[in-house]
């Protein structure tokens, strides 16, 4: 009985106004839990994004996460400090509404950047197409992404636009295919041309064997037999092979007597349309007699007694 009375007495002791010993213990436990959560969140962020983000952006994300945990911790501590939260919530709601309107674009970019970091559709060094823009990713920041076009122009794209745009990663797959259309003359041997092209592709070190190339006659055009050439190459060497192979195909075909024709047209005339140009007589030439000019005649002035109707 005495022990219970003492415990009840110390339980009801008010140390800070209405704050009791139980409130103090709860506050200490909440603060310890907050510090532990902050350390765990920072370690997870370093492991997940340490090699994906610059150090400045990673520090910004960790600082933002720490502030959010602090804010949640303060909201959890307020009931144990016996604050009247009704007025605080009303004022906080008004401030939050004003901030939401003022910073909606910033918040949109920030949230989109976090989603992009977790989803990871691209990484630094990837060749990508975003809408109508094609280039190499230079930097992925918390608010925006920097892309360098193939012309050397740096473009900053807000992450909100990145998140809502179609992103095509040109190097995410280890292999990529390209194709040509090569036209030869009708009198040339198409089977020989296909064999020459296949043999040339087999000698290219970056042309993949699996999936292998495909070479076939695709269309009989107006002035040529069109051969389609499809080749797979590693994504890192795709462009180099594509730009070099086409000229090698042209040289190889011409070396073996196979020509790439120019556009040609054949015109047929009916015999009734033929005209003997010798029977065509030019129109007669009318000669104008020569007249000497009057030196005393003043141009533009009427002669004495000369009248006009205008």
TrEMBL record:
PROSITE patterns with a match to the protein in the record: UPF0003
Q: Which GO terms describe its cellular component?
A: plasma membrane
Residue ranges occupied by any Mechanosensitive ion channel transmembrane helices 2/3 domain in the UniProt entry: 63-104
Q: How does it sit in the membrane?
A: Multi-pass membrane protein
Location(s), subcellular: Cell membrane
Q: Where are the transmembrane segments?
A: 24-41, 61-82, 88-116
UniProt biased composition (Basic and acidic residues): 293-310
Region (Disordered), start-end ranges:
280-310
Q: Which Gene3D superfamilies match?
A: 1.10.287.1260, 2.30.30.60, 3.30.70.100
Q: Which UniProt keywords apply?
A: Cell membrane, Membrane, Transmembrane, Transmembrane helix
Q: Does the keyword Protein transport apply?
A: no
Q: Which InterPro entries match?
A: LSM_dom_sf (IPR010920), MS_channel_1st (IPR049142), MS_channel_C (IPR049278), MscS_archaea/bacteria_type (IPR045275), MscS_beta-dom_sf (IPR023408), MscS_channel_2nd (IPR006685), MscS_channel_C_sf (IPR011066), MscS_channel_CS (IPR006686)
In terms of superkingdom, the source organism counts as: Archaea
Instruction: Please report the stretch or stretches of sequence annotated as the Mechanosensitive ion channel MscS C-terminal domain.
Output: 179-260
Q: Where is the signal peptide?
A: none
Q: What does the record give under GO molecular function? A: mechanosensitive monoatomic ion channel activity
Domain Mechanosensitive ion channel MscS stretches: 105-171
Q: Identify its protein family.
A: Belongs to the MscS (TC 1.A.23) family.
This one is known as MscS Mechanosensitive ion channel
């Amino acid at each position: 009985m005495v022990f219970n009375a003492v415990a009840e007495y110390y339980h009801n002791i008010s140390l800070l106004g209405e704050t009791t010993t139980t409130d103090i213990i709860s506050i200490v436990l909440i603060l310890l839990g907050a510090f532990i959560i902050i350390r765990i969140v920072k370690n997870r962020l370093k492991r997940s994004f340490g090699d994906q983000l610059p150090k400045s952006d990673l520090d910004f994300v960790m600082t933002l996460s720490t502030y959010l945990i602090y804010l949640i911790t303060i909201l959890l501590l307020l009931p144990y400090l016996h604050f009247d939260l009704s007025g605080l919530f009303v004022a906080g709601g008004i401030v939050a509404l004003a901030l939401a309107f003022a910073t909606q674009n910033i918040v949109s970019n920030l949230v989109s950047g976090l989603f992009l970091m977790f989803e990871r559709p691209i990484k630094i060094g990837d060749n990508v197409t975003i809408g109508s823009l094609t280039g190499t990713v230079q930097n992925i920041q918390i608010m925006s992404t920097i892309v360098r076009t193939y012309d050397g122009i740096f473009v900053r794209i807000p992450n909100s636009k990145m998140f809502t745009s179609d992103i095509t990663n040109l190097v995410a797959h280890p292999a990529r295919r390209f194709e040509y259309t090569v036209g030869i003359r009708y009198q040339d041997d198409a089977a020989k041309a296909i064999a020459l092209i296949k043999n040339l592709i087999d000698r290219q070190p970056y042309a993949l064997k699996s999936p292998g190339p495909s070479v076939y006659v695709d269309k009989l055009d107006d002035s040529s037999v069109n051969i389609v050439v499809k080749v797979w190459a590693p994504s890192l060497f795709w462009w180099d092979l594509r730009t070099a192979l086409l000229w090698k195909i042209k040289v190889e075909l011409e070396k073996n007597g196979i020509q790439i024709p120019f556009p040609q047209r054949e015109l047929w005339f009916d015999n009734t349309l033929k005209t003997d140009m010798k029977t065509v007589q030019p129109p007669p030439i009318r000669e104008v007699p020569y007249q000497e000019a009057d030196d005393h005649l003043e141009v533009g002035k009427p002669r004495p007694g000369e009248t006009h109707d205008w």
